[in-house]
């Protein structure tokens, strides 16, 4: 496989993955579906898609285009932190109410 084909395959799959995964990031940002595990999977899909796109661009020799793409990982990090905070709040609330899991 030549360099151009490898770039096209990696970045194409990566862009498809982070486009689909962006729905999970948006759900986390808007605090929708806090109990669903699929939101975590979608955020992971987004992050992996961004990384795959960055790897494809670096292998193709376009690191100056890959650098801004790497910054797209920041919303995924924030989304995961928001999800964790909501889970901790629910766990503390269950503890205070005396409910068991």
From TrEMBL:
Residue ranges of the TM segments: 6-29, 41-57
Keywords: Membrane, Transmembrane, Transmembrane helix
Protein's recorded name: Uncharacterized protein
